[in-house]
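Re: weekly structure request thread

Next one in the queue (493 aa):
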Amino acid sequence: MDYQRKRRLTHICIGLIFLFSGIEYAVILPTIWAYLQTLHAEPYFLGLGLAAFSFSGLLAGPVFGQWSDKTLKTKPAILFGNLFEIAGNFMYFVGISKWLLLASRLVAGIGTGAVASIFGYLTRATSSEERATVFAAVMACRQFGLLIGPAFNLFLRYCNFHIGPFVVNKYTAPGLFMCFLWILLQVLVVFMYSDLQPLKIHIQQTGGEQEEEEEKTLVCNTSDEHMANDNSVYGSMTGREKPLASVNGEVFHPDEDRYISNGHIEKVNDEVNENPFQNFSATREYLREEVVVLLTAQFITLFNQTALETMVTPLTQKYFGFGELENSIMYFLCGAEVIAGFVLVRCLSTRFADRVILAVGLVICNISCIWCIIFLADPKGQWGTLLAEFIIGVFLQVLGLPFVAVSQISLFSKVTAEKTQGFSQGLRRSVGGIATILGPLWAGGLTQNLYVMLAAMMALLTLLTVMMGLSYKYLVEPQTDPTYRTAQEEEEA
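Done, posted below.
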């Protein structure tokens, strides 16, 4: 199998991972509250159940990320993490008690740690110019899962039979369904996923003879004179290094243990390649103004998002009488809006800088939160008026998500070192995991006092907006790798 085909199959697997994670979220979230009620769970168990998934994920993310940074392989991490998804969803299906249901989300959350490895790979496999576009496409796969997930609930809600001692009904069926999907993914990853080196060094097409040669694997016999104009320049090679090979118009190093970051060949020795954390300093890497702002954006946006999601189901049940079907339709429509938002962000990312897109997203989020405080904290009026106010609030909240999500991930990948991207992305996801734990817990205890809940969310958004305004000039890709900045540059930053 040639390289290009392997890469396509690998990218299909990555897309399916995000797709299935979106489907899982969409089939479980609308039903977990009613499922817990059948198990006589207290109201706060809804927040615990949602938080448990994020808690185990925030612990697993950095571990998986560091694993992939050291080995430069993502396939073992994906296969290992997927085992936890399978086990967790089977436990959710069994669901004989509220504690088992809580444990099932805790186990399944460990599997999400492999996403840090995937984001690390995507960062190193793309140039800074195309990164936001690639991230938007990958995240759109998850949102497409959120879009079609409720459609599965439309037929899962009619399940009513037994498999041995286990009952399959509209509450347990989502767990069984997701268990089958993750087993399918496990098989696909085994046979379709390849740990290929990311290739971003392109060969200029100069003529027909070269195009014919690109059908084969060639060794580029480049002279020392051509390659050694300045062997100290970033991206240059010395004559002692192994030659490059060309496959279907793209170039890679034959040594599969080497990793070419962002299409650049770093001037590093084999010892550094084997251990990217040899000269790593967490203080120097993460305690920088731009990194702190982006991690704060990750926390606040996910805290507010999960708090609102926790509030939505009890709110629609109380004021509109929504059940599983109505909630599934609502999430379906939200998924369609988010996908449209990602398509819009993907187009805008080719014209505007990441920080501009982030600023637009924050403006939308602020407007959404203000709207919710005014109209949804203490809903009054007729049913139709309440529904219209609710729809507008949800629409604004969902609209801002793609702008903030894509831009802050893209910026974070640019202001942190490429050689430790897996660990950095794991850290970023851990910060998000803390937010998705605290968000449901905060909202779960304040469903009867929405003014307090929404006021806290507004305060956090105001803080983030001020921080971004003060640090706006730093939210750009540095000219050099932050890991290798001089002491003077570090002091100026």
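Residues 235 and 265 are 5 Å apart (CA to CA). Strands lie at 161-163, 166-168, 201-202, 218-219, 245-247, 250-252.
Next request, please.
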